[in-house]
Recover the amino acids of this structure.
């Protein structure tokens, strides 16, 4: 479904309607507000800031699909030729507004609105790891509440009992720190289904591949950097020319996990090039802050996972954070 672009004044009522619609289909009955409170308990509540990913900045650019994209999906931005305007936001994971850019065991993130025209947009909300840290909303709540105790025995016991929650950190710490927001891949994490004009369906996972390559820093270089070095780095890079990402769809096969955001798909899955995301300039942060990036805001021709509780609770949890940061 394509949601109307949220006018600032109408945003809250639209978001509350979203909250009211989603719970029936959720895989468990975790309260979205409890998740936001638990994020605040771990990272602190910071007035006017996002409960998660508060350290970031806004950019703008465009998305241009390949011819191949239209064969897989009838979504307007995939099936019609030509570039569409994009507003995006790069950020650090967690809930610390000063999370250092050089932190190794943290995700980098990229969220985008693609303008579909007529006041409509579709969103992609991605992180620099292929998996999330919890399988279900109830497990994520338990994880946050356990971390908030700061009791190392309890935290250790949680990870021992839920080994799938160790995968994201293990993936990040096995890799070097990205030198730039422009030199890391970004993953959609959840499984989406692309549907074409003939009604054919293909399960996929989104992966954005940096055209500049995957440049990185050593641990010592990362520690020596200013905690906020990504913004000046990107500003300097954009002064020389746009930053591009190849938007790819990893093609899933029968038996691949559909509803578990902690599960990896096998490495040998083929990818199809869907388009190019071009970041051309920084944008005023207000452009990103007066709206929310909503992973469930997908167009006709793209479906989210049916039984992935994490996917389903994201939109109502983001709405809680959005309404609090706009109070
Ligand atoms: C139950 C699971 C999750 C919860 C409770 C949660 C919570 C949140 C909240 C409260 C925000 C701030 C929203 C706002 O104020 O606009 C946020 C932002 C974000 N989340 Fe999540 N999240 C979850 C899962 C995920 C997953 C699986 C991903 C990656 C695919 C992800 C990626 C992001 C990104 C990139 C942002 C920043 C968006 C922006 O720049 O505005 N989150 N999350």
């Amino acid at each position: 479904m394509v949601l109307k672009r949220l006018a600032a004044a109408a945003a809250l009522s639209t978001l509350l309607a979203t909250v009211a619609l989603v719970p029936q289909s959720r895989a468990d009955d975790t309260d979205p507000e409890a998740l936001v409170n638990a994020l605040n308990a771990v990272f602190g509540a910071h007035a006017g800031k996002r409960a998660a990913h508060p350290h970031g900045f806004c950019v703008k650019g465009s998305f241009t699909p390949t011819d191949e994209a239209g064969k897989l999906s009838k979504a307007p931005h995939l099936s019609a030729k030509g570039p569409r305007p994009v507003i995006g936001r790069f950020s650090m994971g967690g809930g610390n507004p000063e999370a250092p850019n050089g932190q190794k065991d943290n995700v980098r993130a990229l969220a985008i609105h693609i303008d579909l025209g007529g006041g409509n947009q579709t969103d992609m909300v991605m992180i620099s790891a292929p998996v999330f840290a919890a399988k279900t909303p109830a497990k994520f709540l338990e994880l946050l509440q356990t971390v908030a105790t700061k009791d190392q025995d309890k935290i250790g016991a949680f990870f021992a009992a839920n080994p799938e929650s160790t995968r994201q950190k293990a993936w990040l710490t096995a890799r070097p720190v990205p030198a730039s927001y422009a030199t890391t891949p970004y993953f959609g994490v959840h499984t989406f289904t692309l549907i074409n004009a003939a009604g054919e369906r293909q399960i996929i996972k989104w992966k954005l591949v940096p055209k500049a390559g995957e440049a990185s820093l050593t641990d010592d270089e990362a520690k020596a950097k200013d905690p906020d070095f990504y913004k000046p780095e990107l500003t300097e890079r954009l002064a020389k020319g746009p930053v591009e990402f190849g938007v790819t769809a990893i093609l899933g096969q029968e038996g691949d996990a559909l509803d578990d955001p902690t599960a990896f798909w096998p490495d040998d899955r083929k990818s199809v090039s869907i388009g190019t995301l071009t970041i051309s300039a920084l944008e005023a942060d207000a452009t990103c802050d007066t709206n929310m990036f909503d992973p469930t805001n997908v167009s006709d021709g793209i479906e989210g996972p049916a039984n992935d509780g994490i996917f389903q609770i994201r939109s109502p949890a983001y709405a809680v954070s959005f309404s609090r940061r706009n109070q």
